[in-house]
Amino acid sequence: VRTGTPTDFFPWHWSLLPWFEGRCADEAAISDDQAERFAAFLLALHQPAPADAPSNPVRGVPLDVRVENTLERMARLREKEGQITASIETIWASALAAPSAAERCWLHGDLHAQNVLVDGNGAISAVIDWGDLTAGDAATDLAGIWALFESAEARRAALNHYQPDQALLTRAAGWAVLFGVVLLDSGLINSPRHAVAGRRILQRLDADQASLFA
């Protein structure tokens, strides 16, 4: 609705945004029938980005840019939580070895469950928090499937509608590992809500590992 720039009175950028009804998807379950709708949203968003589209140092980048920090977090979680299973290790290693994205497309950049709103009927009512809007690898957003959908059937429906090739699918699962690890590790420090979200992502990936590379 309106944006503002820093002043002496309020030294930050600010914005006024429209109100959307709904609760965040980590607190209100999305219906399985929203899986194809979410995939259609991603397909509509993931258009080729122009050369002057914004870049982000941590979103949409090759996964190897995030390796050092992710491995540190994984090491802590092995000791604390037991969530870094052999399946998660396999997914992560496969994603790092997968071919890089051939093109930069538009991305939301931060599609975890707190940035998707759900109405009282389980339908997606809005995708919010576009502060990380950027161009890069579509795998970053596709990882949101594991953040949002509880049932394996819904996750399959979303992927079947999007139709990623194997390299994109493998990188997307790797990004989901990264998001799960970051949310769980940081959440154990000061945000139980983040910790629950991260744990759910890793558990869903663990359940899907065999089908990802079938």
Write the layout of secondary structure elements.
Blueprint: E1 2-4, E2 14-16, E3 23-24, H1 35-45, H2 67-80, H3 86-97, E4 105-107, E5 116-118, E6 124-127, E7 134-136, H4 139-142, H5 144-148, H6 152-162, H7 166-190, H8 192-212
Antiparallel strand pairs: 1-2, 3-5, 4-7, 5-6
Helix pairs in contact: 1-6, 2-7, 3-7, 3-8, 7-8
Protein described:
It contains eight helices and seven strands. The radius of gyration is 17 Å and the shape is globular. It has a three-stranded antiparallel β-sheet with strand order 3-5-6, with no helix packed on it. A two-stranded antiparallel ribbon has the order 1-2. It is mainly α and 214 residues long.
Helical content band? 40-55%
List the helices and strands in order. Answer: EEEHHHEEEEHHHHH
**Nearest-angstrom radius of gyration?**
17 Å
The total count of strands amounts to 7
* Spatial ordering of strands, largest sheet: 3-5-6
Structural class: mainly alpha
- The end-to-end span amounts to 47 Å
Q: In one word, what is the shape?
A: globular
Q: What proportion of the residues form beta strands (DSSP E)?
A: 5-15%
Low-confidence stretches: none
Enumerate how many helices there are, as a single number: 8
Main features:
8 helices; 214 residues; globular; mainly alpha; two-stranded antiparallel ribbon; single chain; 7 strands; 48% helix
Sum this structure up briefly.
The chain has 214 residues and is mainly alpha-helical.
